[in-house]
Amino acid sequence: xxxxxxxxxxxxxxxxxxxxxxxxxxxxxxxxxxxxxxxxxxxxxxxxxxxxxxxxxxxxxxxxxxxxxxxxxxxxxxxxxxxxxxxxxxxxxxxxxxxxxxxxxxxxxxxxxxxxxxxxxxxxxxxxxxxx
Length: 132
What we know:
Blueprint: H1 14-39, H2 51-67, H3 73-88, H4 95-126
């Protein structure tokens, strides 16, 4: 029986690739941030401390899910919302503000510069090649 030919992969733009990389790495940091919230007993006394771990896992999973959805414009917006959530975590653990600034800057660079590269590449692909 002949093997089926491999299905061609969907081409990914620079913005999609870079943003998904940033979100994937930040997911690990979000999980560790949840552990820090738990370990430092940073939540109010009325809230069980294990909710810090649950929150960290939830944000990490949302980041991983969003990393697969950044091909859509709304996926990029969800990524920005997640950056805001990490920044709000600084109210519980001030060190998370440093994480939010670093990863927020990387996400901004990935989305802005990646979109710029995508426009340049689309322009090159659309223009006819000049004879040598």
